């Protein structure tokens, strides 16, 4: 990569907040000091502030690891689930009755 200041239209890597990925971007605007100010995603064409290819920190709290530990806390405080009742016998008789019903209707 040539060691020159960035110019409009240059392709640079940046994090796209819309795609949530590190993608190719076009330089859309430059600051007066020549630094990249805004970039346009080449995938979704969303223009946003240049993020210096930094991925945002993963959110903590409501989502992520805390949810699991909270769930584990709740489960630990619960009594063991009771044994499930034995499965009832398969309704064989009912099915036979249904076929008998069909035969009865056919005869009519
Ligand atoms: Zn994008």
Q: Please, could you describe this protein's structure?
A:
The chain contains two helices and four strands. The protein has a domain at 1-56: SH3 type barrels. The relative contact order is 0.12. Helix content is 27%, strand content 23%. With 108 residues, it is an alpha+beta fold. Residues 16, 18-19, 23, 41, 43-44, 46 line the site of zinc ion (ZN).
Task: Describe the structure concisely for a colleague.
With 108 residues, the chain is of the alpha+beta class.
Pick out its properties.
single chain, alpha+beta, SH3 type barrels, four-stranded antiparallel beta sheet, 27% helix, 23% strand, binds zinc ion
Fold topology:
Elements: E1 11-16, E2 21-30, E3 36-41, E4 47-49, H1 65-77, H2 92-107
Antiparallel strand pairs: 1-2, 2-3, 3-4
Bound molecules: zinc ion.
Mean pLDDT: 84
CATH architecture of one domain: Roll
- Which ligands does the model contain, each kind named once? zinc ion
Please give the largest β-sheet.
4 strands, antiparallel
Strand order of the largest sheet: 1-2-3-4
Task: Note the run of SSEs as H and E.
Answer: EEEEHH
Strand content: 15-25%
